[in-house]
Amino acid sequence: MKKTSFFLVAALACLILTCCAVSRPGSSKPEEKLNWKLGAQSYTFRLYTLAEALDKIANCDLRYVEAFPGQVVGAGSEEKFNYTLSAAGKTLVRKLLKEKGITLYAFGVTGGKDEAEWEQIFAFAKEMGIKVITCEPQEEHLDIVSKLCDKYNVKAAIHNHPNPSHYWNPDVVLNALKGRSAKMGAAADVGHWMRSGLDPVACLKQLEGCVIHAHFKDLNAFGDKRAHDVHWGTGKLPIREVIAELKRQKFDGMLSAEYEYNWKNNESDVKTSVANFRNLFDK
């Protein structure tokens, strides 16, 4: 009887531990089943330091960040996050990331004025463990970027700002990628495509096989450069179709949440958007 009781208690304990593991906060991330890394572009919290932005990102139940160049590090440092960051600054950023349980996955949108500066950017990315540099290189720098991708084993994702920026149309991005490193691809900004009057789903299909990173947002209007962010799933973005298309393409990169509106108090907007996204993910 004693032996039977022991096994019953052990089985009950295992069941309790399993239930706790399933229900613990932060475990409901359906996108992880497809290796999608849902995080945030720190520019969303540009009015704050990087340290404060990391707090906000963690509060939104996100574990990845795309840092932008020029944000003050904070936590006692007045340095700005960039490839010029001092050794002490890098140590501090690593400490902040570890404390918040956040991975620095991407950096941008950035670029170099010449080959030497591009090299510094890639070397910095490699040192900081950054996987993707989001950028809009000058045409004459595309071969430089291609070479550095292979040298440092860091990806470069070409980002599309709205028309009339150079890479607003997927045709231009595809042409830029021809004959270049397999580590180069597209950073698909679905909101900027909407501002340019382009169907995000059609653009994703056009870039099939090349989408390695994404900037994710929903807008209150289509084809209007003045359109502003709204909670994901409540605006003009065909969000279910976008998710379905990324799934079809077996996308496995980072989705950077952007919310460039209600700047002073947009943490709750991002949190709601993330919850909406996860609720839609398996539907």
Task: Write a brief structural summary.
This protein is α/β, with parallel strands linked by helices and 283 residues long. It is built from ten helices and ten strands.
Explain what the structure shows.
The chain has helices at 2-23, 50-59, 87-100, 115-128, 142-152, 170-177, 190-195, 200-206, 239-248, 267-281; strands at 37-41, 64-67, 72-74, 77-80, 103-110, 132-135, 155-159, 184-189, 211-216, 254-257. With 283 residues, the chain is an alpha/beta fold. The chain has a single domain, classed as Divalent-metal-dependent TIM barrel enzymes (TIM Barrel), CATH 3.20.20.150. The strands form two sheets. An eight-stranded parallel beta barrel has the order 1-2-5-6-7-8-9-10, surrounded by four helices. Strands 3-4 form a two-stranded antiparallel sheet. Strand 6, helix 5 and strand 7 (155-159) form a beta-alpha-beta unit. Helix 2 (50-59) packs parallel to helix 3 and helix 8 (200-206) runs parallel beside helix 9 (239-248). The protein starts with a helix and ends with a helix. 43% of the residues are buried. The model is unreliable at 1-27 (pLDDT under 50). This is Sugar phosphate isomerase/epimerase. GO terms for molecular function: isomerase activity. Residues 1-21 form the signal peptide. Residues 55-279 form the Xylose isomerase-like TIM barrel domain.
